[in-house]
Design a protein that fits this description.
This protein is mostly helical. Helices cover 59% and strands 6% of the residues. It contains five helices and two strands. The protein has a two-stranded antiparallel ribbon with strand order 1-2. The longest helix has 25 residues. The radius of gyration is 19 Å and the shape is elongated.
Length: 126
Amino acid sequence: MVLIQLFIDNKNGNPIYEQIYSQIKNQIISGDLKEEEALPSIRNLAKDLRISVITTKRAYDELEKEGFIYTVAGKGCYVAPKNVELLREENLKRIEDYIQKIIPLAASCNLTKNDVIEIINFSWEE
């Protein structure tokens, strides 16, 4: 079983299950959690985080529904083999999110679309 680093922020507006889901998903996408690694049991993770088992189960259920983990009855939850298309979609979504932040920032600096493309091209070549 792998040790997962999770931080629950009670001041964060997101529900706790969503914080767990997002952090584990990000660790899988980044490769910090490897394919076929066993995750902590739902009960152990709930105990370690001092939260409800129901909350932990909901996070794991969401991860499984999205294809990031799978469950073996009686054995636990494991990181699923990476679905290249799923990871590509996740990364495309992240890129789109960044671009949506860049556009108003660029506009506030009076940059044109071509200026932004030039910045990207320059950064790409580095």
